[in-house]
């Protein structure tokens, strides 16, 4: 499970309030890596007062006044960050039990930049003049190797301007928001938060409640003034990467009502808006919280009951009756993500097929379905479906009983999935005493591992000839006393497979120097074509003029997890998209494919609730 990366820019005023440090600590507790970019206006003013030095100013041709940064001032600016701003941030974070690394970005060339062109300004006599020694620029290069190493070593890495000059001159002052955006793009961050003193970008500066909730490239410039112009510029720069981007506040990240979210791509039509936004928020396994919160807000805005449960699942419900239909999708994706975009009628992006298209359909159907008084329709967006834990589905199994279940997984709008193969996953470790590989009859740990994997594969396939097998990971470790080689052997087993027999066949091959551990033994599942749930889908297909295909897929899904105890609950899987694109860099979904599946699902749901009592 990967650790998500947050890049957070907080100005001096925000840092002084202290709340942001607690929010950073909460992210770390959730498993995130955090790169905190500090602004320094307040700290610079304090430092200059402390040393009794006047702060030089420049008056620009447009009448604005900016800090003047000739070479002789840069040492004082660096001191302001290193003696005031960074130590204060570090002290607050360490007080919360966090390990912290701080540095101005110029130190060691963590970030380098390019100097701006000479600046047009006005003299004291209002005469135009050209200032050539103003040490201000833009960041251009990031030492990603060193920063990633620091992010892995510390709970929080805190950096600030200035940056090193690529031309070898004195450091360059840069805008901290822009620095955060450049860092976000260079490090492939998952989330960028530009924290400010207002509730996001205000459409009316005199109205603190006029937050612009959604901004697309070019929108923000209509409302941004003063310092907010740089935040908008930085936010739009960050859209070149794949992080989800928001200007948040006042001085907080905790209240999404004070956010302006920036979106890279605009949906081609209103009915594709939820799909577009859902795919645009990264949610690799272990990083589902931002998406869950966003979708819970989306549901509540439409009058639905919605929460994020103890497991981290999104749970949205309409109706309180005893007839319960569950639509179970998942929030998480496999790594990695990339900038989302519409190309003609196709939405390209990680998760567009597996399985955010299905989840978006579930939520839109939930919002508009006709729920009878005795009915309940629940949508769950589960966490950790793409990794072995299946944490979200196990929580669903134990807490959200249902009379029928539709699993949100892609098989295409014209197919209905009746079941899945099961998963039998083994960890095999071979160990040998340390010694030279040129010795008489020497057998290395990898040799021992390969032989064991081959023997286990042969034994298991003898019990389940239709199973699919693959070694999905191998690691080696050379110690002083022994050498180790570890392999993960994965079997996809048909619903008829005898898992206890497979377990016995595999574990029976353990011996001295070879240990075998069962990581996962999830049975397959195949439902009946005669179930009421299949029948309502069949009628919906017929009304849409579609002749469906019924399939049992060789992968696994959360259906398998539910089936471990829900033996008498009818289940199918349905969702738009070509499953051959799952987990590939070609992942994309067509707008018409999405609409077709949404319409058919809505019909099937309404038909299920209309079934007579006792026929479900």
Description:
This protein has 616 residues and is of the alpha/beta class. It has three domains: 5-42 and 77-113 and 142-262, Acetylglutamate kinase-like (Carbamate kinase), CATH 3.40.1160; 270-420 and 525-610, Zn peptidases (Aminopeptidase); 422-522, 2-Layer Sandwich (Alpha-Beta Plaits), CATH 3.30.70.360. 32% of the residues lie in helices and 27% in strands. It contains 16 helices and 31 strands. It has an eight-stranded mixed sheet with strand order 5-10-2-1-12-14-15-13, with helices on both faces. Strands 16-17-21-18-22-30 form a six-stranded mixed sheet, with helices on both faces. Strand 3 and strand 4 form a beta hairpin. The protein is globular.
CATH topology of the largest domain: the name is: Aminopeptidase
N- to C-terminal distance: 39 Å
Number of domains: 3
Low-confidence spans? none
Q: What's the name of the CATH homologous superfamily of the largest domain?
A: Zn peptidases
In angstroms, what is the radius of gyration?
29 Å
Structural class: alpha/beta
Q: Mean pLDDT, nearest integer?
A: 94
Question: How many distinct beta strands?
Answer: 31
CATH architecture of the largest domain: 3-Layer(aba) Sandwich
Give the strand line-up of the largest sheet: 5-10-2-1-12-14-15-13
Portion in beta strands: 25-35%
CATH class of the largest domain, anyone? Answer: Alpha Beta
- Major sheet size, sense and barrel closure: 8 strands, mixed
Portion in helices: 25-40%
What's the helix count? 16
What is the 3D shape? globular
């Amino acid at each position: 499970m990967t650790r998500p990366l947050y890049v957070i820019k907080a100005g001096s005023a925000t840092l002084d309030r202290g709340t942001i440090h607690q929010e950073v600590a909460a992210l770390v507790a959730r498993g995130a890596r955090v790169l905190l970019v500090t602004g320094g206006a307040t700290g610079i003013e304090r430092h200059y007062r402390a040393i009794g030095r006047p702060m030089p100013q420049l008056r620009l041709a447009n009448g604005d006044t900016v800090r003047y940064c000739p070479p002789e001032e840069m040492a004082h600016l660096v001191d302001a960050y290193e003696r005031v701003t960074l130590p204060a941030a570090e002290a607050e974070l360490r007080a919360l039990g966090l390990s912290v690394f701080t540095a101005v970005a110029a130190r060691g060339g963590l970030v380098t930049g390019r100097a701006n062109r000479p600046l047009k300004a006005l003299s004291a006599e209002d005469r135009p003049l050209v200032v050539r020694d103003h040490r201000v620029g833009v960041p251009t290069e990031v030492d990603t190797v060193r920063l990633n190493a620091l992010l892995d070593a510390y709970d929080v890495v805190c950096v600030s301007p200035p940056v090193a000059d690529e031309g070898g001159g004195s450091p360059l002052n840069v805008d901290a928001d822009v620095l955060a955006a450049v860092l976000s793009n260079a490090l492939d961050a998952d989330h960028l938060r530009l924290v400010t003193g207002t509730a996001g970008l205000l459409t009316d500066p005199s109205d603190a409640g006029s937050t612009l909730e959604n901004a697309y490239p070019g929108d923000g410039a209509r409302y941004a003034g003063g310092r907010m112009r740089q935040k908008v510029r930085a936010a739009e720069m960050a859209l070149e990467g794949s992080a989800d981007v928001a200007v948040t506040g006042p001085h907080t990240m905790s209240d999404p009502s004070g956010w302006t979210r920036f979106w890279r791509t605009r949906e081609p039509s209103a009915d594709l808006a939820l799909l577009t936004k859902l795919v645009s928020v990264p949610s690799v396994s272990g990083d589902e919280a931002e998406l869950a919160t966003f979708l819970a807000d989306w549901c509540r805005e439409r009058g639905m009951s919605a929460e994020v449960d103890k497991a981290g699942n999104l749970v949205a419900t309409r109706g309180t009756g005893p007839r319960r239909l569950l639509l179970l999708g998942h929030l998480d994706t496999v790594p990695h993500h990339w900038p989302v975009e519409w190309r003609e009628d196709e939405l390209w992006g990680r998760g567009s097929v597996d399985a955010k298209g299905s989840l978006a359909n579930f939520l839109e159907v939930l919002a508009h379905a006709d729920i009878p008084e005795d009915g309940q329709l629940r949508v769950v967006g589960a966490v950790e479906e793409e990794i072995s834990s299946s944490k979200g589905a196990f929580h669903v199994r134990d807490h959200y009983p249902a009379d029928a279940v539709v699993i949100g997984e892609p098989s295409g709008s014209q197919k209905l999935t009746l079941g899945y193969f099961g998963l039998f996953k083994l960890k095999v470790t071979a160990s040998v005493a340390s010694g030279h590989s040129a010795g008489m009859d020497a057998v290395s740990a990898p040799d021992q591992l390969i032989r064991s994997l081959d023997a286990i594969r042969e034994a298991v396939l003898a019990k389940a000839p239709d199973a699919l097998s693959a070694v999905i990971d191998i690691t080696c470790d050379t110690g002083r006393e022994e050498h180790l080689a570890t392999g993960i052997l994965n079997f996809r087993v048909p619903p008829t497979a005898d898992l206890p027999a497979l377990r016995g066949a595999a574990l029976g091959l353990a011996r001295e120097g070879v240990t075998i551990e069962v990581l996962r033994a999830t049975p397959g599942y195949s439902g009946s074509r005669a179930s009421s749930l299949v029948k309502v889908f069949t009628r919906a297909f017929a009304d849409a003029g579609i002749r469906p295909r019924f399939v049992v897929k060789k992968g696994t899904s959360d259906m398998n997890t539910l089936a471990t105890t829900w033996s008498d609950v009818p289940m199918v899987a349905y969702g738009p998209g070509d499953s051959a694109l799952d987990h590939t860099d070609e992942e994309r979904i067509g707008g018409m494919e999405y609409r077709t599946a949404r319409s058919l699902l809505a019909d099937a749901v309404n038909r299920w609730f209309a079934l007579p009592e006792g026929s479900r």
